Amino acid sequence: MPTTQVSCPRCRQPMTADIQQLFDLNTDPQAKQKLLSGAANMIQCPACGYQGMYPTPIVYHDPEKELLLTYFPAELALPVNEQERMVGPLINKVVDNLQPEKRKSYLFQARNMLTFQTMMETILEADGVTKEMLDAQQKKLQLIQRLLSTPTKESRLEIYKQEEALIDEAFFSLFSRLMEATMQQGDQESAQQLAGFQQELLEETSMGQVIQQQMAESQKAMDDLQNAAKQGLDRPKLLDLFLNAPSEIYISTLIGMVRSGLDYEFFQLMNERIEAAEDQDEKEKIEGLRDSLLEATKKIDEQMQLELKAAQEVLEKILSEPTVEAGLQKYGNQINELFVEAVHLALEEARKVGNLDRSAKLGQINAMIEEANKPPAEIQFIESLLKADNDENLVKMMQDNLDKLDDQFMQTMMGIIQQYEQQGQQPELVKRLKLIYNHAMKMVMKKNLQA
Fold first, then answer.
1. Is residue 237 part of a domain?
2. Which helix (H) or strand (E) holds 263?
């Protein structure tokens, strides 16, 4: 959000604040979350201590739901024509950011919201959120505000007992979204305060203890998978992890980490285990696991296809701009994890049909992605040192690049060594890294003494 010079609504003292007037999901997928979190346009006056939402016009746009909403705070007390003059440029920006074929009639019939609460309810109603659900969320928000304003732990413990029914999974989810929004705004102090309250909630409430148990089960799944990897993970060992899983949380964590391993051969192995099972209970257990894994992988693949489609749509938006640079600047914040795959698929198709202009643009995007993903210079240097075929060549490479043996290089080396040692992985690589570190340390000491 842009930093703006504003006046405190209470004492009129000038101050700077992060004020956002346009929330457009077409250009910012996080716009809805920012607005619904309640953290957008919140200010705190350093002079009088006033804290609250700064009164400013807001335009909200969701092209998928065909929603274009405007809100003008009543306290500004401006005539309608002046309000239209202020929100007009924001609506024009919404239209300009849309591709021509997506400009529909709703864009010329913006719905004015009389209150900010009405705007929030309209947005949520479009997502299928009922009035009852809104009321429940409002109660949770009020509880969070109440907890944040309660100074002593003893008093908060009493509140936890009184409001136990409100502190459910949805409450923790809402709390996490508030933390994320606060961190995105760069308010580290408030984020740390919220993190402290979250830890207290995890330790002192019934639902918090359930969540902690789930986190422990998830961590156990990750640890067990890591230990299996050290011994050489294969499909039979992976199947044993699933069959011996202590909980659904454990299973879902494994699925998320090893989706690529749940392939045809894995399920063929499961079928062989089913056929070989002599005990009926064991057979039914493996069959049930197989069915649930098939359903889970199907859902994951469907979600990935949706995300890939979204990435492909963003790619087309970028390519439709006059230059690749302009497209990335305009739509770069919409790029998801599957954008790289979308580029590769499009590049392959463009080359297949001989579309040279499209191939050139896609090649440029691909080159920019590769450049952005390049490891830091010190990591690249470490990788080159690891390729040295003997100690003599290793020492020569380091002597030829003494300028690269700086504090950053040494800290990076130590960090990598410690990481691998803690994970207990690749002992031979650790041994090689330590050798490089020792040679580097000697050369740095010698260079410093000569200096």
1. no
2. none
- 326, 350, 374 — which closes off a domain? 374
Q: Render 181-238 in DSSP notation, one character per residue.
A: HHHHTT-HHHHHHHHHHHHHHHHHSHHHHHHHHHHHHHHHHHHHHHHHHHT---HHHH
Judgement on whether residues 383 and 370 belong to the same structural domain of the protein? no
Looking at the structure, tell me whether residues 119 and 148 fall in a common domain: no
DSSP code for 440: H
Same domain for 266 and 154: no
Q: Which amino acid is at 13?
A: Q
Out of 358, 374, 390, pick the residue that ends a domain: 374
Considering the domain architecture, whether residues 8 and 122 belong to the same structural domain is answered as yes
pTM over 0.70: no
Could you list the pLDDT tens digit for every one of the 451 residues in the chain? 567 888 888 888 888 888 999 999 988 888 888 888 777 888 888 888 888 889 999 999 999 899 999 999 988 888 888 888 889 999 999 998 888 888 898 998 899 998 988 898 899 888 887 778 878 888 888 898 888 888 899 999 999 999 999 999 989 888 887 877 777 666 667 777 888 888 899 999 999 999 999 988 988 999 899 888 888 889 999 999 999 999 999 999 999 889 889 999 999 999 999 999 888 999 999 999 999 999 999 998 998 898 899 889 889 989 988 898 888 887 877 787 788 899 999 999 999 999 999 999 999 998 888 877 777 788 888 888 988 888 888 889 988 988 888 888 888 888 788 777 766 667 788 888 888 888 888 888 887 777 6
- Nearest Cα neighbor of 116 from 55, 84, 71 is 71
Q: For residues 140 and 106, state if they share a domain.
A: no
Phi/psi of residue 278, each to 5°?
A: -90, -30
Cα–Cα distance list, 249 to 59, 162, 208, 209, 339 (Å) = 41, 29, 16, 15, 29
Q: For 61, which DSSP code?
A: E
What span, in angstroms and rounded, lies between the C-alpha atoms of 28 and 5? 24
Query: Residues 272, 339: one domain?
Result: yes
Q: Which domain does 321 fall in, by range?
A: 262-277+290-374
97 backbone dihedrals φ, ψ, rounded to 5°? -80, -10
CA distance 410 to 167: 47
For residues 348-384, one letter each, b for 16 or more C-beta atoms within 10 angstroms of the residue's C-beta and e for the rest, the string is eebeeeeeeebbebbeebeeeeeeeeeeeebeebbee
Domain presence at residue 218: no
**Nearest in space to 242 (alpha carbons), one of 232, 226, 255, 229:** 255
